[in-house]
């Protein structure tokens, strides 16, 4: 495959895996990025979120597999049982969004941080309410 054919193939592959907004605002002539406001169906004005989402089924499946592994631990089971959704605070662990357009390394880092926060929050609860200081990361089942 020639280099131009390979570049065309890679560009087509990227376009197929990322869902782009239907209409992008024109770029400013001075070369700086501008902040664009949009009006939604309710008539409210807000900043346009030009966030691209991943739609590649294989990549989504691989990412979901990593999330499922994290949710299949004793730490997650205890966290979900002890901290109900409506009681969760801003700094509490949040499951990473599998559709965010991160690289594999970035997504792996977000999963690693999420799992570390799960362990830290459970260890903190155990220190406050008593019990073992370490968490067994065995699989639930």
UniProtKB/TrEMBL annotation:
Q: Where is the composition biased (Low complexity)?
A: 1-16
Q: Give the residue ranges for region: Disordered.
A: 1-48, 80-108
Keywords attached to this Swiss-Prot or TrEMBL record, sorted alphabetically, are: RNA-binding
- Every copy of the Histone RNA hairpin-binding protein RNA-binding domain together lies at 55-120
Q: Which InterPro entries match?
A: SLBP1/SLBP2 (IPR026502), SLBP_RNA_bind (IPR029344), SLBP_RNA_bind_sf (IPR038294)
Xref: Pfam families: SLBP_RNA_bind
Recorded GO CC terms: cytoplasm; histone pre-mRNA 3'end processing complex
Q: Which GO terms describe its biological process?
A: mRNA 3'-end processing by stem-loop binding and cleavage; mRNA transport
Which residue windows does the record flag with biased composition (Basic and acidic residues)? 89-108
The GO molecular function terms of this record are: histone pre-mRNA stem-loop binding; mRNA binding
Q: Does the keyword Cell cycle apply?
A: no
Top-rank taxon, per record: Eukaryota
Do you know which PANTHER family this protein is assigned to? HISTONE RNA HAIRPIN-BINDING PROTEIN (PTHR17408)
Can you tell me which family this protein belongs to? Belongs to the SLBP family.
Any idea what this protein is called? Histone RNA hairpin-binding protein RNA-binding domain-containing protein
Originating organism: Chrysochromulina tobinii
Lineage, highest ranks first:
Eukaryota, Haptista, Haptophyta, Prymnesiophyceae, Prymnesiales
């Amino acid at each position: 495959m020639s280099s131009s054919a390979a570049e065309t193939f890679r560009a087509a592959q990227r376009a197929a895996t990322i869902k782009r907004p239907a209409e992008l605002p024109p770029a400013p002539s001075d070369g700086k990025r501008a902040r664009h406001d949009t009006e939604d169906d309710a008539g409210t004005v807000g900043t346009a979120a030009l966030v691209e989402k991943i739609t590649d089924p294989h990549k989504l499946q691989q990412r979901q597999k990593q999330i499922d592994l994290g949710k299949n631990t004793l730490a997650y089971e205890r966290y979900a049982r002890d901290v109900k959704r409506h009681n969760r605070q801003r700094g509490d662990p949040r499951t990473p969004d599998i559709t965010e357009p991160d690289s594999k390394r970035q997504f792996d880092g977000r999963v690693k941080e999420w799992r570390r926060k799960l362990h830290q929050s459970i260890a903190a609860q155990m220190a406050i309410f008593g019990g073992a200081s370490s968490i067994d990361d065995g699989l639930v089942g």
